[in-house]
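Q: Predict the assembly, please.
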Amino acid sequence: MMPNKIGDNRIGSSFNHLFTIMQQVNSSDEDIEWDFSNTELLNPFFLLPLVLYKNKCGKNIKCTHLSTSVNSYFGTIHFFEILDAEKEKDFCLYIEKYSQKRYIPMIKFPVSKCKDGIKNNILSAIGKILKAQLNIKGEIYSAIDYMLTELIDNITEHSNSEYGYIFAQYYPKEKYIDICLADNGITILGSYIKVGRSDITSDVDAIRNASIGISTKNLPEAENRGYGIVTSKKMLTEGLNGQFFVFSGGAFYRKNRENDNVVGLPSNIRWDGTVILLRIPYSDNRDFKYIEYLEG
Amino acid sequence: METKILMSDLIGTELRSRTEARKIIAPIRSVKMGKVLIGFSDVTFISRSFADEFCGIIENERLSRSIDLLDKCDNVDITLSIVMENRNMPKSVQKNSETKEFSDMESLSDFLATI
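A: Predicted assembly structure:
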């Protein structure tokens, strides 16, 4: 049974439901039914990982008992078929129709180095739509653009993934936007192992090292690498009083102004790739200057 | 003799990825004589990753030629300055995280209920 509502503002709720479902699916050998009969409202932090998990878990999963409103919502956010930005003839034009909506649909985009130009054009178009939706400019917009750019470039540089995914929903009353980024790559631990970091041996170790900016390169000349996560989380949590989550392999990391945790998960819960969740307050903060957070 | 390369023509007005930054290498190396001027007019955004990759390339290419960077808006100028200054300094690493490990869903759920 799917949850009725993930309407509270705690990210822990989304993870709690997601992990429970993953555990149920992982422990079943039969075909699976996801029953949405009681579902009213779900959060992007739950929905994007859920649909990606559905597509890659190797089980036959059927979604049933969707109400008309949930079915319609799932259709508009591309839950049933993630929007492939690369295959859309004119993605920049297509995405413009969302400028008056409160969400960016689930979008799949290329992240390989050979498609860097395509990726950056898609990212630029998404950024412009967010700017129009939220009616933001200046420092807040630059901060969102900066965080998306750095975190998505990390996927390109480290994940070995062919595609990245994004889904966003904003809440005008509460004045925050939830953005979910994901890939199906080699995990953060995998990216350290790939470059021979034999001293980093677990997902918990890996995510802790990434959270403090330890580069996969570990070379003096690469000292300036590894800032993507560090500067983004600092900008988001200290500058904007937002929340930052990373879930990779069998561990997750969360940071807000008060808390900084690395969490190791039970052995039957893991994500083969990396999921990043950003809760970004976007109300006017005149003291915020994104450039002040670039030093890491 | 001077040769000018415009970043907005070569890459665009938003400079995002390390891969994009590497596009500057070929135009610089195609200049056989004189000073290279790299213009940032119309550039509105530069990421830290782009800036880091770009600075590494410029440091390397300056061993064999003279390169000046021109027409930077404030954000581009500050980002490049921060990255340039940090390149040869040890990184300040802050280890403030508290680590929690869970072996079962029940105890994990209890923790998730608090965040």
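The helical segments of chain B are 7-10, 18-21, 25-29, 48-61, 74-86, 105-112. Chain B touches chain A through 46 residues (CB under 8 Å).
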